[in-house]
Design goal:
The structure holds two protein chains of two kinds. Chain A is 73% helix and 3% strand. Chain A is mostly helical. In chain A, strands 1-2 form a two-stranded antiparallel sheet. In chain A, strand 1 and strand 2 form a beta hairpin. By secondary structure, chain B is mainly α. Chain B has one domain: ABC transporter involved in vitamin B12 uptake, BtuC, CATH 1.10.3470. Chain B has a two-stranded antiparallel sheet. In chain B, helix 2 runs antiparallel to helix 3 and helix 2 crosses helix 9. Chain B is globular and about 85 Å long. The chains are: A mainly alpha, B mainly alpha. Chain A: Its main location: membrane. Chain A: It holds the Pfam family BPD_transp_2. Chain A: Belongs to the binding-protein-dependent transport system permease family. LivHM subfamily. Chain A: One of its GO terms (cellular component) is plasma membrane.
Amino acid sequence: MLSQQILNGLVSGSVYALFSLGFTLIFGVQKLLNFAHGATFMAGAFIAYYCTISGLPFLLAIGFSMLATGLIAILIDLIAFRTLRNRGNAEFPALVSSIGVDLILVSIAQQVSKTQVLNFPFGTFPIKFYDLFGLRISLLQIVILAVVAVLVAALIFYLRKTTFGRQVRAVATNERAAALLGVNAQSVYLQTFFIAGALAGLAGVLIGLLFNSIQFLMGEPYMLRAFVVVVIGGLGSVQGAIVASLLLGVTQSLAVAYLPSGLTDAIIFGLLFLVLLVRPNGLFGDINAVAGGTRQ
Amino acid sequence: MIQFYYAYQPIIDFFLLSVGFGYSQQIALRAGVFSIATAGFAALGSYCVAILATKTGVPIFLTVILGTALAAAVGGLLALPLARLRGAFQAIATLAFVQIILSLLLYGEGFTGGALGIVGIPREVNTWILLIVVGLTMYVMWNIGRSGMGRVFNALRQEESVASSLGVNIGKYHIIAFIISGAVGGLFGGLQSLYTFQIEPHNYGFAFIVNVLTVVILGGRTTLLGPIMGALIMAILPEIARPLAEYRQAVNGVILILVITFLPNGVGDEIVFWFRRRKQARQQQQRASEKEARDAVS
């Protein structure tokens, strides 16, 4: 029972990781909170759903939805962030304008879905269960774990080993210095937004499959979870976000199983508060990135 | 006038409540604190009033005062852990605060009614009371703005290190800002519960946060006129944009993006700034012409 809960927690934690990675990537590079990330996630699930029911093969639908959410994220950067960023001191204004984008996307989704809960058609994904050391694990859960592991490894490789990744890290450290060395900061921003959007879109599809429900408000709880993840892991830290996501997933499923149900949120957000109090930079955060006094 | 009032009473009341919450949000932003805790304060105030009014015999007037005091005290306590955080981290921490309050309200079913909330709260508040309280709040805000405290808040918002080098105790003024924000939020939360006679936790969720932020962003973050203009736009807009009623949230979103991009100070602040600039220009002109006259005499 306990190990089953931990397994379920790891599965949902890995989806949190997929979602939070994009969020923390944007924060790491731009120092801006993207409140529209939850809406991008929701859009991913929606696009995949409508592609599937219009007859597209499911894998193609997922690919299409990742591409589309990546483009949506680029649009978010162009519309809501770029002007503010160029003006400087964009922390608060960007928060507000990304909330604006969130409202727009959620409202469109509400109209499109007519405020209904959508389900992927039966048989979109084969329902199979396996017994593994006495644990019940579904094919979907295995696929999710594998996909997330591959993508996370790819992302870390991308950030650490490729020229693009080095450019991203250079801009994250110091945009001006990077620009002086010939890095095109705008294209780095667009790239990070595309990656973040595509990952969020995939996370949306996976969550839509896992719980078999898609609705226009589904992004909000994940958005709030992402805050917990990035604070515990350290804003801007990729490894921290992964560890924190898994931790959060397990904590949550254990709290649901063994504690009074209504208290889960209070515990999770209490944890966030505690981390902010004791280690504002998060458990794996960069000590140099001061949580206080980031304003100039 | 009376007819106008009866026709638009709900909108007027909504406007007044929005102004109140707007001031709670504004005072924090004004002191350079990225707090979005107003929803939590409002929830505390309204639940305190609702519980006291429905379950005990405490006079209504006293319940509102207790609700205000509770929210103010929690605001002051909240400021202590937040003292180390700035910017985005502050926003996240206050968001977590709101979530904790909401989940505790959902959890404490015996006390707070859980997801169903509390019904049958005596309806003691009408437009006139709201008007008087908003007026009093404005008077307090006006005085804060004109006093040394207001100038300290402005300094903290514009450049914290300079304020600190001039001997401002940052922590102390952040606590004061949170206490005021909490008190105003709790006060109007309490009034809201006495006005709508039923409350539930999700009234104070993400939508509430967004609405309050919208009021202050549209209106302006520094002047007294700010929340009034913001709340006015938010109250009138749905009436004007009736054909777009289904896309109301989207319209709000578009307006938020446009205002923060092209009018970053907000409508109300821009109006006040325009008058100030005009006054200054006129004074300068006057001084110049006086000087000219003096030169001509000598």
